[in-house]
Amino acid sequence: MSEPFTLAVDAMGGDQAPDMVVEGLAIAAERHPGARFLLVGDEARLQPLVADCKRAQACCLVRHAPDVIANDAKVSAALRMRGASMRVAIDAVAAGHAQGVVSAGNTGALLALSKFVIKTLPGIDRPAMAAIMPSARGDVVMLDLGANLACDPRNLVEFALLGDMFARTVLGLTAPTIGLLNVGSEELKGHDQIRDAADILRRSHIACQFHGFVEGHDIAAGTTDIVITDGFTGNVALKTGEGALKLVNDLLRQIFASSLSSKLGYFLARSGLDQMKVWLDPRRYNGAVFLGLNGVVVKSHGGTDAEGFAHAVDVAVDMVTHRFNERLREGIGRLGGVLAQSGAGKPGLTPAISR
Amino acid sequence: MSEPFTLAVDAMGGDQAPDMVVEGLAIAAERHPGARFLLVGDEARLQPLVADCKRAQACCLVRHAPDVIANDAKVSAALRMRGASMRVAIDAVAAGHAQGVVSAGNTGALLALSKFVIKTLPGIDRPAMAAIMPSARGDVVMLDLGANLACDPRNLVEFALLGDMFARTVLGLTAPTIGLLNVGSEELKGHDQIRDAADILRRSHIACQFHGFVEGHDIAAGTTDIVITDGFTGNVALKTGEGALKLVNDLLRQIFASSLSSKLGYFLARSGLDQMKVWLDPRRYNGAVFLGLNGVVVKSHGGTDAEGFAHAVDVAVDMVTHRFNERLREGIGRLGGVLAQSGAGKPGLTPAISR
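ok -> structure tokens follow
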């Protein structure tokens, strides 16, 4: 997209902020010439960083925010900090000064502030946190990753519809397959919420995309394009997979450094090994999106570096340039609720989204 | 242990049963000269298999059982099949003809039949499924892996005590550290059940071993020796980790076969790579134990091979030779309930186990 657009960036979120953030924006700017960044945070610290970096200078506008939301801050406290960098960045989206926001700060605060300031899209009960993960058969979208620790069938079905829209618009898939994460693939496995959600999906307009239950190993196998689960399980699964990959990565590093022969071995197999390392690099999958909000909100891992932060910016750019939210809004408006039809929509609840 | 002992083995459980089972016992027999196996299943199929294998012949006694519990059988149906190989094997433990049972069959049926026939130890509310997993800092015990999909604080605390006993007796650790799996390490993270369980553990006699909350990536990092979670999350986490390891393993195989140079590279780094492969081999971690039952019950993965089944037998042998259940029974008798002290013991519930 050649049309310019602006992303608000919380410059103070993340373990190595703000340096990492400014460096990350410089990397992202090269990939997205149309992007402008509203860099929100402590002006006195940000101005010299931006001045030192030609590429950042060309795309960043600094907006001062005196406060920072700590990583261990309670949501209730975060909601009161009107001068926090995260808050000012989100306010910029609500005011129309930016099309999306990226932050590597406190996840709970980012979700709560986004819901409070930007609001949830009409028809969406609860926004979900989604991310792209590597699998043997290509990218997999998984949600929820921690925005909603406990979920009812309605939430899970909504996540399936949000994930479907995300996979279509951002990944460009035409009929992405959907799996519901469970402890077994048989219909009678799992607890009531999951079985009820599966029943609704089987009777919905995306029934032909619904693969049924999938298990933990199906995520990396890429059995389905989309994996749906509650936020507690999704968060644990995401981090468990990342941990397992890190374990192997560390072992391989040790092995290839252990002797002259091993070092030579690495050198000979280098092209494939380096490709795998790049492909599985967690930084490449950095950037979780909150789906279902009235604006683009991307959460970067707090411990990431500039390269990882740039990937989170990529995700926000993808969401904006693919007009994800506009399409989602159209989808909600065009069709009535799957849940209402299925009887899962309780009176008083807004109708479910649909395509 | 030189003293001979007998394990009852469900010869008909598992995708490649009964051949895989008999071969697995032959492998295990070499490692455990004192072990005798009561091989339960279709006599007409088992006798020739045993007759064909000298090592199996020396340690196996075939006991006929006409039926097999299918993998998709409902628990209610399984409970009625008195002639099933799994049932007859469990009956042998209850009758004192064997000190433990190993099965690669239907997990739900194995748990239900074990609870029904062998019974839960007095003082234990619900048995848990535990397994050993590889980590950067050595073996980690994780439970529950699927026996209890939803857990209250009392269950989680009980799992911590069962895991502690397992790590002490079977892994030989003196003061194993315990982590409670959550979506963050901060005290205010997660849902009520986990926070309440953490509160109880912090006030218990194993408080000094309690590390607090751990996250998904802490499993492979080996942050704690024991990871406690509900059966739903544990099952998903276990399989997600296995899936991630399989993904890397498959990629490495492709890389090292992709060119002559890569093949030579593998050859040069071979000793380390092969060591890693053996160390992370899921078969080496095959064999989940049901802790809290009045006998040793080990569940092998249904899709494993003879080598994997032999590892499940190893686990059962370890449990029997380390007299896990006797020690657990002593522990329960010797001390009163952590839960009763903490106020979590509801009236009518049996007192909690303790050391």
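The longest helix of chain B spans residues 231-257.
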